[in-house]
Specification:
Helix content is 60%, strand content 2%. It is mostly helical and 169 residues long. The chain has a domain of 107 residues: Cytochrome Bc1 Complex, Chain D, domain 2 (Orthogonal Bundle). A two-stranded antiparallel ribbon has the order 1-2.
């Protein structure tokens, strides 16, 4: 004589298996989404120049702002750094800052012609406009130690990803 089979007994293992499969599928979807977010964060980090924006801002305020202005946009005695930094990479920036360099006239006035150009050159020669020579910062320990930070802040300002004023520490 055979005993009747219990139909409820058969569905329990099947239901548990389906629930486990659904949970694994849900977790797998989350893991893929998390990995995609992680990759996006990594790409964003890689596209940003290395260094601390806050530390770069501090060094700039201590060593450069007196001549170039608090936001690096220039003063009567020194040029706006943003267009210059926008055109150079980190390696060139480090070389320019640590060694003596010359920026003979502002980039906006460099393309003028005739009498206006001659007047601009005369102002530069008589040191009424623009800095002829910038000191080398190679012997300055604070600048040397934070040159990458300085570039990070100036580059962010030049690219428009950092506004004027103090960045978040």
């Amino acid at each position: 004589m055979t005993t009747p089979r219990n139909p409820a007994r058969r569905t329990k293992p099947l239901g548990a298996a389906l629930a486990a499969l659904a949970a694994a599928g849900a977790l797998g979807g989350c893991a893929v989404e998390w990995q995609n977010r992680q990759a996006a964060r990594e790409l964003a980090e890689q596209s940003r120049p290395p260094g601390s924006l806050y530390a770069g801002w501090r060094v700039f305020q201590e060593r450069c702002a007196a001549c170039h202005g608090a936001d690096a946009t220039g003063t009567r005695g020194a040029p706006d750094l943003l267009p210059r930094v926008r055109e150079m990479g980190q390696r060139r920036f480090v070389s320019v800052v640590l060694n003596r360099y010359d920026w003979p006239f502002p980039t906006t006035g460099a393309r003028t012609e005739g009498a206006a150009r001659e007047a601009l050159l005369s102002d530069i020669e008589q040191r009424r406009q623009g800095a002829l020579t910038m000191r080398a910062w190679q012997g300055e320990p604070v600048v040397q130690a934070h040159i990458v930070d300085l570039y990070a802040w100036l580059s962010a300002r030049a690219q428009g990803t950092q506004g004027p004023g103090r960045p978040q520490p």
